[in-house]
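Give me structure tokens for this 168-residue protein.
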Amino acid sequence: MGTPDFEATAAMAARLQAACLARGLTVATAESCTGGAVAQAITDVAGSSGYFRGSIVSYADETKTTLLGVDSEVMAAHGAVSAQVAVAMAVGARERFKTTVAVSITGIAGPSGGSASKPVGLTYLGLADETGGDVRRVHWTGDRSANRADSVRAALEWLLEWAEAHSA
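Here you go.
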């Protein structure tokens, strides 16, 4: 990964759409460090309204609690960039949009904002479905643009992997 590959991202979004429409699945996103780029990739494909219900860009911590229902105590204990917050964001998006599945992203895209315990590039992706939530931790090593692009691709890949294994 690394530099943005828009053709690959567009192809993945098209595959996700085909899988979701064929299986009757619906999707929502909750994004922080990607600023809505996953939703943009999904909606760049004509016909996405057939399965995509919406997105909440919760860049500010307050938005994560007020719009997605992330518990402020969880936020205080673990920080916005954490496995716990990523799962809570995905669960909140799935509940609010009433979808089959939701994906979330929270991370430190860079170039600043990192620390020894949470370096630039640290990103958590959450996924929520009817069985609960799951999380994936990644650490990108590119610049801000590359880290965001890698996060978008990782979210689309996870959604596609999930969709191909499920039906409504």
